[in-house]
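Q: For a teaching handout, I want to show students what a protein-ligand complex looks like in token form. Below are the inputs, and the small molecule is NAP. Please produce the holo structure.
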Amino acid sequence: MNKVIIVTGGSRGIGASIVKLLAAEDYKVILNYHQSEHTAEEIKQELLQQGKKIEIFKADVSKREDVRKLIQFAIEKYHKVDVLINNAGIAQEKLFTQITDEDWNKMIQTNLNSVFYCTQEVVPYMLEKQAGSIINISSIWGVTGGSCEVHYSVTKAGIDGMTKALAKELGPSHIRVNSIAPGAIDTDMNKSVTEEEWEEVKREIPLNSIGKAKDIAKCAKWLIEDEYTTGQVISVNGGWYI
Ligand code: NAP
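A: Here is the structure, written as tokens, with NAP included.
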């Protein structure tokens, strides 16, 4: 495959699974990481040994200057970006009354402004080609609202708003923009969830199981290959919210 794909937050969890699945399909993948250098390097070595195309690049996507360098790296290496997957994100559980300005700003900066920065830096190159696909990883909480995660829910709802508005603006240039809204997925993000709590969550999910990172990766792969879906928020949640 000739497509060049950037995955933000590709060092762990959902992002790492997306990177591995797409590299296995012979896409040219650029894995962005921030703190997990060792894990990113391990994924790179694993994929290189399989003869796959993989580059890794350290950037804090909550910072415009870092994002600029990430996109420049991709352009210098491959002269184009076909697909941007805005996956990097953080979560925090707190009562609304206890969210500080610092918590709020960090959440907006990391989860929402990063999507603005990455997308704005990439779109000019997609416009040049009159082609491209942007996939934003939002969340079930952006759609339904998550108790004790107001600031997180706000960022994810914002991402879905951006997805819809941008899909309309960029559709005439053959650039598709979609969100994937995962339900409960077993990654480090949920490492504080106890067995008992997982059982409780499972009881609320019609498919009666917790999602795997690969479930989201498969949806991302489908969205890359699809040609007629845009402006959608696709729920991958086992039927948790219908
Ligand atoms: P995770 O296991 O905690 O991994 C988070 C990833 O984001 C890591 O690779 C991390 O990179 C990266 N990241 C965080 N801040 C970054 C920054 N400033 N710059 C660059 N990379 C950064 O989380 P996950 O569960 O895979 O979540 C991935 C996405 O799915 C997030 O947007 C999350 O909100 C969304 N989501 C997850 C769930 C779930 O149940 N797990 C449900 C709905 C939505 P480093 O480690 O290198 O810093």
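A: Two things your students might notice: The longest helix spans residues 101-129. The first strand starts at residue 4 and ends at 7.
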